[in-house]
Amino acid sequence: MEKITSVNELRERIALLEIEQANSKKLLKEEFKTTYESLRPVNLIKKTFNELTTASDFKGNILNAVVSIAAGYLSKKVAVGATHNPLKNILGAILQMGVTNAVSKNGDEIKSVLKNLLTKFLHKKDGTAKETTP
Question: Cα 57–58–61 angle (5° rounding)?
């Protein structure tokens, strides 16, 4: 930094420093606004949700959990129905837990069997449609 020897040089230097200060203040405000927005609870939740949903393992685990819970619930409703008998309700709850656990532990095998069945069903349907069309 060079020495300032005249009043004009001093004024120029002060003007430059004021411009620099104004620019720094503007940048600091922008950074503060960006930081504030990123730390808002809604934005934190959105960011976390987006990170979780982009993970392929998470999608598979959620799908497996939903399918296993649905299978357990449906098995209870089919087996027990809408009864008020406490013994049947207890047995239905045990059945629901068992089916849910079985489906969650064997989710990959069940998916592959269902995929194979669906593929065979669709191929048979496509094959008959092609044979009947002249």
Answer: 85
